[in-house]
Amino acid sequence: MNEALKNLIAGLRSTKFDNYGVTQVQPKNINIVKEELAKKFCSITLPKEFDLKALVTKVNNQIKYRKQLELTNRERKNLPFILYRLDNSEPTIRIVINNMDFEHFSGFRRIIYAFFSGYKTNSLITQILRDEIKRAIALYEIDLTKLRYLDQGRNQFLYEYGVKFLANHLINGIKPYLEGISFPSGLHNSGFVREAIVSLFESKDIDLKDKIRCFREIGDTNVYDSLYQDIASALIPEVDENGTQEYKDILKNQFYKVLGDPRYSETTYKWNSVKSKARQIFLTWLNKDALELFFKIILDNARGTAKESAVKYRLAFWEAYLPYMSSTWVLLGSDARRRAIRLTQNKMLSYGHINSSESCVFMFSIGGFTFVEMDYGSLRIWENGKCPMSFGQKYAFLNDILYAHFLFKKFIHASPSTYSWQNKVGDWLYSNCKVFKTANDWRP
Predict the structure, then answer these.
(1) Spans of all domains in the chain
(2) What is the per-residue pLDDT across 351-388, written as a single tens digit (0 to 9) for each?
(3) Is a pLDDT exceeding 90 seen at residue 2?
(4) Cα-Cα end-to-end distance for the chain
(5) Is 101:95 a contact under the CB 8 Å cutoff?
(6) DSSP-based three-state secondary structure for 396
(7) Neighbours of 434 (CB within 10 A)
(8) Is the pLDDT of residue 52 over 70?
(9) Beta-bridge mates of residue 352
């Protein structure tokens, strides 16, 4: 900041004046200094964590045994920063707030910072502190224009609807907007901003394309990684209902990157706090991807041969049963993996490996049974728990499938154009899994 002022002064001193003693000062230089001053004035020097922990202990003990506080001036200055760390009970909150400095602007500025930093919509602390802030503004006639981020109507951040008010202003860019109003950088990941971001994705009034733009911005940083579960709960159902395939791919790739595979991975627990509706939709997307990946590979391999038509009949048949598949998994040999990367343009892929280079295996479950389709081979069915492979298995051997024990049923893909095998498998699915489809559902 001092460097900016020095540069401006030096520039003015070196400016040549005309005969009338008049010169043109470049407004951009003044604007730069104004921006730096605004940021400096809105920023706060935060106490050390060690001091805050000690203050929490001291305040808790004094409230417990004395019902009042005896603190140094420095400790009183730091009270706003421990408020959200204390017991969420009204007596405790009142005692602490009554010892905070609302009258002087330096103290008020720290209170505002702490309010946004620890903000929680449903917290009693937030509700009481908000009321006290508004009371102090009126009582002490505090000039909010000194805090640029609360100027020009942005004092609405301090009201009950403040989170939604901010959310509506973030649609054109989270970081650009916050920086544009000189919102302290230390508050960009504050409770207030985090709740506004979640509110943005939950809002029924914000256009989906604006939400996707913000989602992509969030994906470019790890600052808001802790919000992905809440964002997934809100955004996945909306994209599933109203979004394009491009939007679905954007979500799949980013959620898979941050939260992992919700089916079979060491990060599955990250999906536990995602609402069940959104999680189930995401699983359906992945099941569809697994089905499409398997058939893309074998169809590419069969292109221009007599097998091409038979593969299309198989695809049409299993697409009809996709909604009933509760688990899916694909295993690929080395050549099949290379083919998969080429066909899917290297987008998000999740699959296991099998020791036969050209082999491609599609596992899925319907009801109480596990099904295994191979690139060129019979359909094999086991009772759940008896299949030689498990969903999410990273590596498998082809012979374990071909010569497995406990095989429950096997079908050959005979005469697909007359729906011979389809009728047989369809009848079996109806009898054993209570799933009914007709030939009209199977037609390519």
Answers:
(1) 2-42, 43-142, 143-259, 294-442
(2) 999 998 889 999 999 999 999 999 888 999 999 999 99
(3) no
(4) 69
(5) no
(6) strand
(7) 10
(8) yes
(9) 331
